[in-house]
Write a structure and sequence with these properties.
Number of helices: 2
Radius of gyration: 40 Å
Distance between the termini: 130 Å
Strand order of the largest sheet: 1-2-9-8-7
Largest sheet: 5 strands, antiparallel
Strand content: 35-45%
Shape: rod-shaped
Order of helices and strands: HHEEEEEEEEE
Structural class: alpha+beta
Helix content: 40-55%
Length: 156
């Protein structure tokens, strides 16, 4: 006599068969999975190192830019000595600027013995010994060198 399995046993056998078929359909082994995990970990580590390297490069570039700006600020200097409505001014280095008698004087450099200056929004040039009017100021350039101008500024 043949016995027929109960519906519960048949369902269990069927589920077990699907589980075996399901696992055998994956085609991978535990070694394959471990290798994939190691590869992912290595890739993540490489990405982290690349990000750290990029951050260090950015930090280095920012420090270099800061040093360049500090160096430029040291190269561009000014001094002012005022008495009444007249001031003695020395501007050293292109970009040096100073506020004199309520006006900003900026040194733009020297070309062919002429100092280029900006007073407020007015451009002016002067050679050694020359006097010029620049906006509300009269400028008398007493010394003009390759990177410096010494002048007397007075209200016009």
């Amino acid at each position: 006599m043949t016995s027929t399995p109960s519906p519960r046993v048949a369902a269990g056998l069927l589920a077990g068969g699907l589980a075996v078929v399901g696992l055998s359909g994956c085609g991978g082994t535990a070694e394959d999975a471990s290798s994939a995990v190691e590869s992912a970990a290595t890739a993540a580590e490489s990405a982290g190192e690349a990000a750290q390297s990029a951050a260090e490069s950015a930090r280095s570039a920012a420090e270099s830019a800061g040093s360049a700006a500090a160096s430029a600020a040291e190269d561009a200097a000014s001094s002012v000595d005022c008495s009444g409505t007249s001031c003695s001014v020395t501007l050293t280095g292109e970009g040096a600027q100073v506020d004199v008698l309520g006006n900003r004087i900026a040194f733009n450099g020297v070309q062919d013995g002429q100092a280029s200056l900006t007073v407020g929004g007015t451009e002016a040039t002067c050679t050694q010994g020359q006097s010029v009017a620049a906006g509300p100021l009269n400028l008398e350039c007493s010394t003009v060198t390759a990177d410096e101008v010494t002048l007397t500024a007075s209200l016009g």
